[in-house]
Amino acid sequence: MFTGIVEELGEVVAVEESADAARFRLRGPLVTDGAQHGDSIAVNGVCLTVVETAGGEFTADVMAETLRRSSLGALAPGDRVNLERPVALGGRLGGHLVQGHVDGTGTITERVPGEHWEVVRISVPDGLARYIVEKGSITVDGVSLTVVEAGEEDFTVSLIPTTLELTTLGVKGVGDPVNLEVDVLAKYVERLLGHRAPAAPALPADIAGALR
């Protein structure tokens, strides 16, 4: 489980593609410090499993489903990526609960600079808008953000100078894809409401009358 607070701007070192998967080698001295085979690291909001570590770099395998559902398939050597290690049990929850399971990709459609922040508008793929609410939480490329406005086809977020400086959201432009993970609580609530328990059968009239 992650919190959406990016720890380090890493870099794609190499990508080895195969028929239905890819192996990434990424540089991230901070997140690889103490990392071992089997550990998890979020890369642009996608939870990946560490295969090997060496010299401040780590490798991770990405299956076809992940390449299809996220923007990782578009990464190339030299690209910067947001990196985060899982939150330790009992650690500070600085953002919100993030699984690292991307729901789909959006596209940056507008950037409006302000004096102290920048408003970014992002398109929403079909089926995700219902999970996004004004002042709710959303993860964009692994960054925990608060929704400013929520529409049927897009939403906006405001980026503070720290986010612009320390994450990839500071350099991505209009037309660039971003990974989106909606609040998992919204999905669970929808699931539960869609499978409500059937109403209890009515009591026979004589029993119901006796209980009054």
Indicate the topology.
Blueprint: E1 8-17, E2 21-27, H1 29-32, E3 40-43, E4 46-54, E5 57-63, H2 64-69, E6 80-84, E7 104-113, E8 118-123, E9 137-140, E10 143-150, E11 154-159, H3 161-166, E12 177-182, H4 184-194, H5 205-211
Antiparallel strand pairs: 1-2, 1-6, 2-5, 3-4, 3-6, 4-5, 7-8, 7-12, 8-11, 9-10, 9-12, 10-11
CATH hierarchy: architecture of the largest domain: Beta Barrel
Q: Detail the poorly predicted runs.
A: none
**What is the total domain count?**
2
Give the strand order, joined by hyphens, for the main sheet. Answer: 1-2-5-4-3-6
Largest sheet, strands/sense/barrel: 6 strands, antiparallel, barrel
Describe the protein in words.
The structure is a single chain. The protein has 212 residues and is α+β, with helices and mostly antiparallel strands. The protein has two domains: 77 residues, Elongation Factor Tu (Ef-tu), domain 3 (Beta Barrel), CATH 2.40.30; 91 residues, Beta Barrel (Elongation Factor Tu (Ef-tu), domain 3), CATH 2.40.30.20. The protein is built from five helices and twelve strands. Strands 1-2-5-4-3-6 form a six-stranded antiparallel β-barrel. A six-stranded antiparallel β-barrel has the order 7-8-11-10-9-12. A hairpin with a 2-residue loop joins strand 3 and strand 4. It is globular and about 45 Å long.
